[in-house]
Amino acid sequence: MLVFKYITFHYIRYFIIILLALVLFLVGFDYMGNTEKLDISANLFLIYVVYKTFYAIDMLLPLSLIFAMISTKIFLIRSNALVSFYSLGYSRIDILKPFVVVATAMITLFISLHSISNFARADEFAKNIRKNAQYLSPTRDLFFTYKDKFVYFSKLLPLQESAENIRVFSFVDNSLKEVLVAKRASYRNDAWLIKMADIITKPDDISFDSLGIKVTQKDNLEILQGFRPKMLDQVYEGKVNFSIKDAIDAYWLLRDQNINTNIVKSALYKIFVYPFFVPSLVVIIFFFVPVSVRFLNVSLFSFAAIISSLMIWAFLFSLVELSNHKTIPSELGIVLPNLLLFLFALRQWIKYRTSPISD
């Protein structure tokens, strides 16, 4: 228990230092590259920095956990603490457990942060502030299907939870039956409320004897039950930075309508599967490090471990982006690489669990 606390303390310490350094570097580098575009008020600038910090944490936290493990292992080797622990009868697994437990706990916390919409969409909000001096730019000319209707929004305002210039087309047996026309709709009580709308109804039989097109006015109509503004903005704009709740709701909604759910599945895999490459990589790297500084060129090992980690992280991140853009299936780009890393890490764990410790 004492060894567990000792290693955990140093691992968390290195993790905080490395994450802080990487986040400051990324945010500072972004600021230097966009100084001319950030001619905005002090309040918006502060919010921009906060969102950029969230985005940096979202991208760099998994990598920081790996770098922190490498730094902690080097510290244990250089201080001869690792040899001392083995001399006292601790096994490789006993030394490895703190790294795996802390990394898994941090990844679980990392996943829970994606239940916060502002965290999940931090980069999008930061870009909107930089380009338009506001959190969310309106989504224009949104045309989509919902159940048996076709819906058009001239402008969607997600923050205000409202839409302007609405058209809802209803079909019966592949024939246009009626068109709902309204100037404005607001999202209230899990539905879109239209205070006043014109209903244009086409007769079933168009002939000289028919009464022609009928126009009626209706008040307080409710449409698109359960279709939240943020979900509309994300799904039909093709964005992939969902919060957990929005992603799950969007998946079931699209599935019920027999609409392709690949983007939403990719977002869910990115949240729940992709981060777990960290514990696997921690296990793999751990067993490649000798136990004594006498058999280790520390500088060479540190360089090789960091470069290898960066390459693996960049490769997995690229596969995630390719999956998000539907270039490759998300199961192939996200699930399979993580599964292979896990199986290799499991093999290493089983192999060294009972093997004797030697330099």
Structure notes:
With 359 residues, this protein is of the alpha+beta class. The protein has helices spanning 2-33, 42-78, 81-87, 92-113, 117-120, 122-132, 229-236, 244-256, 262-272, 277-286, 298-324, 330-353, and strands at residues 139-146, 149-157, 162-172, 175-188, 191-201, 214-223. A hairpin with a 2-residue loop joins strand 4 and strand 5 (191-201). Helix 1 (2-33) packs antiparallel against helix 2, helix 2 (42-78) packs antiparallel against helix 4 and helix 4 runs antiparallel to helix 10 (277-286). The mean pLDDT is 82. It comes from Sulfurimonas denitrificans (strain ATCC 33889 / DSM 1251). It is found in: Cell membrane. Keywords: Cell membrane, Membrane, Transmembrane, Transmembrane helix.
Q: How helical, in percent, are the residues?
A: 55-70%
Largest sheet: 6 strands, antiparallel
Question: Into how many domains do the coordinates divide?
Answer: 2
Strand order of the largest sheet: 1-2-3-4-5-6
Kindly report how far apart the N and C termini lie: 25 Å
The sequence of SSEs as H and E is HHHHHHEEEEEEHHHHHH
Strand content: 15-25%
Q: What's the overall average pLDDT, rounded?
A: 82
Rg calc: 27 Å
What form results from the Cα inertia axes?
elongated
Total beta strands: 6
Number of H/I helices: 12
Which class of secondary structure composition applies to the elements?
A: alpha+beta
Poorly predicted sequence stretches spanning 5 or more consecutive residues: none
